[in-house]
Amino acid sequence: MKPLEERYNAWIDGELPEAEAARLAAELGGDPATLHAERGRVRRLGDLLRDHHAHFEGPALANAGFFNHQLMQRIAAETPAPAPARPLWQRLGWRLMFTTALGGAVAALALVALTRETIAPDTQPYQAHLLETEPGEPGISAVAIQAGDEELAVVWIDGLDYVPAEPKTVTIGNR
After folding, report:
1. Closest CA to 125 of 153, 95, 148, 96
2. For every residue of the chain, which 3-state class applies, written as one string?
3. Is residue 91 assigned to a domain?
4. Could you read off the pLDDT of 55-110 as tens digits, one per residue?
5. In a domain, 143, yes or no
6. What is each CA distance from 109 to 35, 113, 115, 143, in whole angstroms?
7. 2 vs 133: CA distance, rounded Å
8. Domain-embedded: residue 27
9. Are 160 and 140 in contact (CB under 8 A)?
10. What's the maximum distance between 2 C-alpha atoms anywhere in the chain?
11. Considering the entire predicted model, what is its pTM?
12. 96 near 89, Cβ under 8 Å?
């Protein structure tokens, strides 16, 4: 069986068999004369709508482009301008600043934790002393480094023209 809308449209168009038309009239629950008058009004309205181009044709616009231009200008004038786009840092606001500060603090703490040296309380850190010496010969100067109780290592000798074949042991004192 067809849905009510399809049967109603078929009844309006006169394509519904008499038996089904009687059942539809019973379903609609109206007087047969009233239903017949309604059917006539709906058919006339359908005919008018189908032939709308013959009855409702308006004059063609001579300057359609100019009319459209004026219409678009009026629409643009009545439409509010969109808000200017704000930069990302303004849209995020305090959340961005808080996140950046928190990230910087975490990075600083991680850097301190990774670079921190743990020195046992019973050991001394490595210490070295820079000494300026006088070798005893005029025009020669030397700079040496002394590391704890270890041997003395010469870092720089200035004014020496030759290197002696045998090393000499020299006692050096602090100034």
Report:
1. 148
2. CCCHHHHHHHHHHCCCCHHHHHHHHHHHCCCHHHHHHHHHHHHHHHHHHHCHHHHCCCCCCCCHHHHHHHHHHHHHHHCCCCCCCCCHHHHHCHHHHHHHHHHHHHHHHHHHHHHCCCCCCCCCCCCEEEEEECCCCCCCEEEEEEECCCCEEEEEEECCCCCCCCCCCCCCCCC
3. no
4. 666 677 788 888 889 999 999 888 888 888 887 767 778 788 889 999 999 999 99
5. yes
6. 88, 6, 10, 40
7. 119
8. yes
9. yes
10. 144
11. 0.29
12. yes
CA distance 67 to 62: 9
Q: How many domains does the chain have?
A: 2
Q: Rounded CA gap, 175 and 166, in Å?
A: 27
Which residue range forms the structural domain that includes residue 144? 127-175
Of 33, 55, 77, the position where a domain reaches its end is 55
Q: How confident is the model over 18-37, as pLDDT tens digits? A: 888 888 888 888 777 888 88
Q: Which residues pair with 142 in a beta bridge?
A: 133, 157
Residue where one domain finishes, among candidates 34, 55, 76: 55
Structure tokens at 133: 């010496």
Nearest to 24 by CA among 46, 5, 41, 45: 5
